[in-house]
Amino acid sequence: MLGTALAIMLAAGVALAQPTLTIASWGGAYSQSQRLVYFDPFTKTTGIRIRDDEWDGSVARIQTMVERRQVTWDVVDVLTPHALQGCEEGWLERIDYGKLGGKAAFVEGAAMECAVGTAVYSTVYAYNADRFPGGGPTTAADFWDIRRFPGPRAMQKSPRTTLEFALIADGVPAREVYNVLATPAGVERAFRKLDRIKPYVKVWWTAGAQPVQLLASGEVAMSTAWNGRIYDAVKHHGKNFRIVWDGQAMDFDLWAIPKGSRQVGAATDFIAFASRPDIMSRQSAYLGYAPTTKAAMNKLPPDVLKDLPTAPQNSRNAYVMSARFWADHDQDLTERFNQWLARP
């Protein structure tokens, strides 16, 4: 009798000892896909519960947690500039790739020192095909062609991708965009090109859900957007939107662990689980983002691959966002961009 009671107590103790991980991500369809592909299966497999939170990309929030030693996030879905900055400034833990199959398991650029890629996404522009029954735009330059493709535009309220997009629309090959943007003349060229489209930009969006809402309501005819948001609107909500892949900016969403998390072991276990090829390859069908491990890429069926940024037909004139460039130039270019926006 005593042995049975002790066994029950020990079992209960093990259950109670299981940690709860708090994971911060971006919300919307993206976070929903993570719940379905990663969070719920991880809890079912390990018994470790996941509490999800949302953040807006402001690094000050993580920095404050770390400085005050009040870290409440165990894993954060970050972008490449966050990963680079957090590693250099010491507010992100270094990733133990020995538990993830080694860096060589990942596609180029996805295995950073303090963050590991979970998805390849892209900033593209999209349009509502109902607005262009005679045929829509096909190139980056067409976004600027108000005569052939009339209607208000929306663009992200950020110099990142916006300046690169302007240069590509002005004829700079995508593979050369950072060589040009790294020069004063290149920066001037980008802003001159933006001067031409500025009167037609009705909304400067700040949240990933906005482009879909703006296109669906008819408030704008075209918008820059994250490809996964457009994919979700088309595949799961029946919207008649089209993506223009020319000039797309490929980048990574990455898992990172804030310095000082009390659950580093469980957080690493979660990242290892999410990096398994059989798990990671499932997210693409939900959201149109590509996996970051080579083995997961090989598991994708053709009908899924065709809608991904990494598909050969979609990546002919694409570039990978440079975390180093934006780490070095973000402050200056953001200040100039905001001043440019404020001018009438």
From TrEMBL:
This is Putative spermidine/putrescine transport system substrate-binding protein. It comes from Cupriavidus gilardii J11. Keywords: Signal. InterPro entries: SBP. Residues 1-17 form the signal peptide.
